[in-house]
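Quiz preparation item.
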C-alpha cells in the first residue's frame, strides 16, 4: 500500500462520520455537496448540462476522445446522495483515460423515490443513448457502490425486456446482496474507513421502501446472470462489501459470463474516487480504461 494510501486511510479514520437518519439526511446532502465542490476536474474537460427523461444529466468529454465510445455512468451514494462534485473530477479522468464520452445521470433519490425509481431512470438513460444513434455495442455501463448495483440490475432489466445489451459493464465496489446481514459481529468493520453497517442499513431501508430485498432486480446476486455482457468488477481488500464482489464474480463465471474480479489489497470502499491523489486509484482507472477499450 502506498504512502498516500496510508495517509488517506488515517484522514478517513479520524474524520467524523455520524449516523445517517432521515432527520439528518438533508444536512448530510448539503455537506456532501459543499465538500465535493473542493475537488475540481481537469480544465481541458468539457462538461455540459442537459435533461434526460426528467433527470439532470451531464455530457462529459475530453480532447481527443473517440466520439463513438460512450460510457453511461451511474453514481454511488447509497441511492440517497446525488451526483457530487468529486464525480465530475473522477469521471472526467475516466473519460480522458478511456478516450470516451460519458453521460452521467442524476437519477431520482431515495427515500423520496424508492425502488424502482432509480432503475427506471437508468433504463431511460440507456434508451436515450440508443435514440441518439449510439450503437449498443459502443456503450459501456459503469457504476460505483449503489451505482454498481444499478449497473447490474440495469443489464438484467434490459435482458428481461429483450433489448440489445451494451458492450460491457463495470462495477466498482458494487452492492449485490441487499438481504445480507451486515452486522458488525460478522465483519471486520475497522478495516473499511468509509462504509459501516449502520449506514448500509439506512441506505438499504431507504431504497427498498418495503420491497423484498431478495428480488433479483434489487439483489442481482439472486438473478440468472447468463447472457450478460463481459463484466469488470473491482473491490477493495479492506471493504465490508468485498464478499459481494467475490460472490458476484463467482456466480457470473458459473453462468458463463466473462467476468474479471480485481481486488486491491488494503483499499477501502470506492477508493477509485481518490484519483488523482492515490496511486492505487490511478492504477484502477487504467485497468478500467483498458477493459473499456478492449470491449468497444
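Solution:
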Amino acid at each position: 500500500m502506498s504512502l498516500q494510501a496510508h495517509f488517506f486511510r488515517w484522514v478517513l479514520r479520524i474524520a467524523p462520520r455520524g449516523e445517517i437518519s432521515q432527520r439528518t439526511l438533508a444536512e448530510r446532502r448539503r455537506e456532501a455537496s459543499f465538500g465535493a465542490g473542493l475537488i475540481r476536474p481537469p480544465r481541458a474537460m468539457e462538461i455540459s448540462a442537459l435533461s434526460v427523461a426528467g433527470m439532470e444529466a451531464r455530457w462529459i468529454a475530453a480532447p481527443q476522445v473517440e466520439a463513438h465510445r460512450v460510457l453511461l455512468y451511474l453514481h454511488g451514494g447509497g441511492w440517497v446522495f446525488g451526483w457530487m462534485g468529486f464525480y465530475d473530477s473522477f469521471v472526467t479522468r475516466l473519460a480522458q483515460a478511456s478516450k470516451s464520452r460519458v453521460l452521467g445521470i442524476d437519477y431520482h433519490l431515495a427515500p423520496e423515490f424508492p425502488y424502482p425509481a432509480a432503475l427506471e431512470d437508468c433504463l431511460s438513460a440507456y434508451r436515450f443513448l440508443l435514440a441518439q444513434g449510439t450503437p449498443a455495442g459502443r456503450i459501456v455501463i459503469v457504476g460505483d457502490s449503489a451505482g454498481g448495483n444499478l449497473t447490474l440490475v440495469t443489464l438484467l432489466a434490459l435482458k428481461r425486456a429483450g433489448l440489445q445489451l451494451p458492450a460491457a459493464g463495470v462495477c466498482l465496489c458494487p452492492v449485490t446482496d441487499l438481504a445480507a446481514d451486515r452486522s458488525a459481529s460478522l465483519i471486520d468493520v475497522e478495516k473499511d474507513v468509509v462504509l459501516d453497517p449502520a449506514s448500509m442499513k439506512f441506505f438499504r431501508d431507504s431504497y427498498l421502501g418495503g420491497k423484498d430485498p431478495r428480488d433479483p432486480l434489487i439483489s442481482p446476486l439472486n438473478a440468472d446472470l447468463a447472457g450478460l455482457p463481459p463484466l469488470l468488477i473491482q473491490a477493495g481488500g479492506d471493504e465490508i462489501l468485498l464478499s459481494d464482489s467475490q460472490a458476484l464474480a463467482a456466480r457470473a463465471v458459473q453462468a458463463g459470463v466473462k467476468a474479471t474480479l480485481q481486488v486491491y489489497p488494503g483499499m477501502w470502499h470506492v477508493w477509485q474516487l481518490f484519483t488523482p491523489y492515490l496511486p492505487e486509484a490511478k492504477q484502477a482507472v487504467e485497468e478500467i480504461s483498458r477493459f473499456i477499450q478492449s470491449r468497444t
